[in-house]
Specification:
Layout: E1 4-7, H1 11-22, E2 27-30, H2 34-38, E3 46-49, H3 55-65, E4 69-72, H4 79-92, E5 95-98, E6 108-109, E7 112-115, H5 118-125, E8 131-134, H6 150-153, E9 154-158, H7 162-170, E10 178-180, H8 187-196, E11 199-205, H9 213-223, E12 226-230, H10 241-251, E13 259-264, H11 275-283, E14 286-289, H12 291-297, E15 303-306, H13 310-319, E16 325-330, H14 340-347, E17 352-354, H15 359-367, E18 375-378, H16 386-392, E19 395-400, H17 405-415, E20 422-427, E21 435-439, E22 453-458, H18 486-496, E23 503-507, H19 513-521, E24 526-531, H20 534-546, E25 552-556, E26 571-574, H21 581-591, E27 596-601, H22 604-616, E28 619-627, E29 630-635, E30 638-643, E31 647-654
Parallel strand pairs: 1-2, 1-4, 2-3, 4-5, 7-12, 8-9, 8-11, 9-10, 11-12, 13-16, 13-17, 14-15, 14-16, 18-19, 23-24, 23-26, 24-25, 26-27
Antiparallel strand pairs: 6-7, 19-22, 20-21, 20-22, 27-31, 28-31, 29-30
Helix pairs in contact: 3-4, 8-9, 13-14
Length: about 650
């Protein structure tokens, strides 16, 4: 038993039939011709008929099929058919829904032009070019003579009567431009005439089905011919196709089955968009993305949802199952510094990802440089140790995210002693007002750029970091501040198990030797050096500048109070606790129950205090080792081994969840 009946005389009707077939909702589709039936989909639960029905026939069919809802998607000018459908629904007690085209009340609708009279049609056609098939009858023939070159452009179709032929000849319609034939005219004959005389326009009156109106309009559609209709469609109340789909989803409790594509749109200009991306955007009935992306892609009448939060996007798609093809537009390429990663996590694996032109490939091609050996990164919307990357790599490309991004980078490069590097900057890539600049950092110190800009940096003096920690002690500025020595530092950092993106605390940082080594190892992360003594704080800052450790932040204060407002740590080194070991350890575990910690102790009392704390606190993998280091000292021609103070290195990991 069918639940829905669709009168599908239009593209909108076929679209609704496809929607019902795809959702396997039993439906009966009514069309006027066999050709119309051929255009419809074949699906489970879909019945199709092409008989022309009276109001009584419609009512009988509705009752026979047990129809719950009728969707009237007939032509806006088929007023007679619509009246019959409404009457049948009323008598059968069936819900009636009128489906209207977008902007149906406008004079121009797709390839149709509505006018009130032949005179108005002629006035419109005067400003066009191309042949015209006039199917309005001999009584209107004289009105076409007002059209320039009417004798060549207008092909007049009239009855084959002697007096009609004579009248038209006297008006100037001669030979092939005078078509004398008796109707009715089939769809195929109408189509053949339009093609034979290469007509670009067909002028006809809204005569209804009895006047062969459908055959004329359908022939015009097939030939790509513009209809000029005398008379306007009845102004109706109804809903759009999208609203109708939404209604069906509510009525039958349908869930979203949308085909979702994550579409890389390149830099923004349509010129940088791939053909696959263009097709996905054109076919989408819903476009989602940030405002700038939507504005770059949206076609007239296309539904859109301005949003870039992945969870909100997923929720919106789930809440709107009426959309069948959804395109989430992303700048550049989805695989390079985009929101595609989070979207794939929340939308599932069936999502299609469509590649786009990335900013790096576009920009480097503009510079005529290869980028197979370039370090790629982004500081758009996140912190990143960009100067540190430039110090380590000869070639670095980065996406920036603020108007002062270029000037801030230039100032950092000068501060960290890299004033000789070469900067290449790009703004508004692919647009007509695109800007490309080249220069040394000092040339960009006060430069204000577009918020979304890119930079490529060449540093011939770049020196890769050592594979392991182990900066010689003599390289640090020390003065009279205590320092964790190289060998102890090396073992302690090995026990700490740092990662590139670790967030580290160095509590009781002293000269900052451990902090500097941390910053170099965790170069994608952040290091906080906490020190209470002003002299040591100043020395920390000097060492930070000497080693260009931009991701190192010096915090002056006493632990644990100085730690409270800092970013949550993944790792912590404690070189000095000032008697606050238990409160420091508790705070670290509260901030991150799984924090990795390494503690250096010299005094036995500190060892005892630490072990007492660890027995009470939720930690695991506790390891205690004693390190006794002896170094050779030259005495005359001899080498004497001189012992350093023994150090206890205690390591553990938080046991929390």
């Amino acid at each position: 038993m069918c639940k829905v009946m669709v009168f599908a005389g239009t593209t909108e009707g076929r679209e609704l039939a496809e929607f019902l077939a795809g959702r396997e909702i039993p439906a009966h589709i009514c069309v006027a011709t066999e050709y119309g039936e051929q255009l419809l989909p074949r699906g489970k639960g879909l019945e199709i008929s092409h008989e022309r029905l009276t109001a009584e026939d419609m009512e009988s069919l509705m009752k026979k099929k047990g129809i719950r809802m009728v969707l009237d998607a007939t032509h806006p000018y088929a007023a007679e058919v619509t009246a019959n459908i409404k009457s049948a629904c009323e008598h059968a007690g069936v819900s009636y829904v009128r489906v209207l085209r977008e902007n149906q009340k406008d004079n121009h609708m797709g390839d149709c032009v509505y006018v009130d009279s032949v005179e108005e049609a002629v006035a419109f056609l005067e400003h066009t070019s191309g042949n015209i098939l006039a199917a309005t009858g001999s009584k209107e023939a004289a009105k076409y003579t007002a059209l320039t070159d009417y004798g060549q452009r207008v092909f007049l179709r009239v009855l084959p009567l002697p007096n009609v032929v004579k009248q038209c000849q006297e008006l100037g319609f001669q030979g092939k431009n005078l078509i004398c034939m008796q109707g009715p005219f089939s769809l195929e004959l109408n189509e053949a005439m339009l093609r034979q005389w290469n007509c670009k326009y067909l002028v006809t009156k809204m005569s209804g089905n009895t006047g062969g109106f459908w055959e004329k309009t359908e022939a015009a559609r097939r030939c790509g011919c513009t209809l000029v209709l005398i008379g306007r469609p009845v102004k109706e109340e109804g809903i759009s196709v999208t609203a109708c789909k939404q209604l069906l989803c509510r009525e039958f409790s349908l869930k979203s089955q949308a085909e979702i594509s994550l579409v890389g749109i390149g830099m923004g200009s349509s010129k940088s968009r791939t053909l696959e991306a263009r097709a996905a955007i054109e076919e989408a009935d819903l476009l989602i993305g940030a405002k700038r992306m939507i504005e770059a892609c949206q076609r007239p009448g296309q539904d859109c949802f301005v949003e870039y939060n992945s969870e909100k996007i997923a929720a919106y798609i789930a809440e709107h199952p009426e959309y069948e093809k959804v395109a989430v537009v992303l700048s550049g390429d989805p695989g390079f510094c985009s929101g595609a990663k989070k979207l794939l996590d929340v939308l599932g694996e069936k999502v299609k990802v469509i590649a786009g032109t990335s900013s790096v490939s576009y920009f480097m091609s503009k510079l005529q440089k290869s980028w197979d050996d370039v370090l790629l990164t982004s500081v758009h919307g996140k912190e990143n140790n960009l100067p540190g990357m430039i110090k380590r790599h000869k070639k670095v490309f980065a996406i920036l995210g603020t108007r002062d991004g270029i000037q801030n980078l230039a100032r950092d490069l000068v501060t960290w002693g890299m004033e000789d590097v070469m900067l290449y900057t790009g703004e508004r890539l692919s647009y007509e007002n695109e800007v490309l600049k080249t220069g040394k950092p000092e040339e960009f110190l006060d430069y204000e750029a577009d918020a979304l800009s890119v930079v490529y940096v060449e540093n011939p003096k770049a020196e890769p970091e050592n594979a392991t920690h182990g900066i010689p002690d003599e390289e640090f500025l020390r003065e009279k501040v205590p320092m964790t020595k190289e060998e102890v530092r090396t073992v302690s950092l090995s026990k700490l198990r740092l990662k590139e993106d670790s967030v580290c605390y160095d509590v009781g940082a002293g000269t900052g030797s451990v902090s500097i080594e941390m910053a170099k190892r965790a170069w994608k992360g952040r290091v906080f050096a906490i020190e209470k003594k002003p002299l040591a704080v100043e020395l920390l800052k000097k060492n930070r500048e000497k080693f260009a450790a931009e991701n190192l932040e010096v915090i002056e204060g006493m632990a644990p109070e100085a730690l409270e407002d800092l970013e949550t740590p993944t790792h912590a080194f404690i070189g000095g606790s000032s008697g606050n070991m238990e409160t420091i350890l508790k705070l670290l575990l509260n901030k991150n129950p799984k924090v990795r910690m390494v503690i250096n102790c010299i005094a036995l009392e500190t060892v005892a205090e630490t072990l007492t704390c660890l027995k009470k606190l939720p930690v695991k993998e506790t390891e205690i080792l004693q390190l006794a280091v002896s170094k050779a000292k030259t005495v005359g021609s001899y080498h004497m081994m001189m012992g350093e103070n023994p150090i206890y290195i205690i390591s553990c990991t938080g046991a929390g969840h």
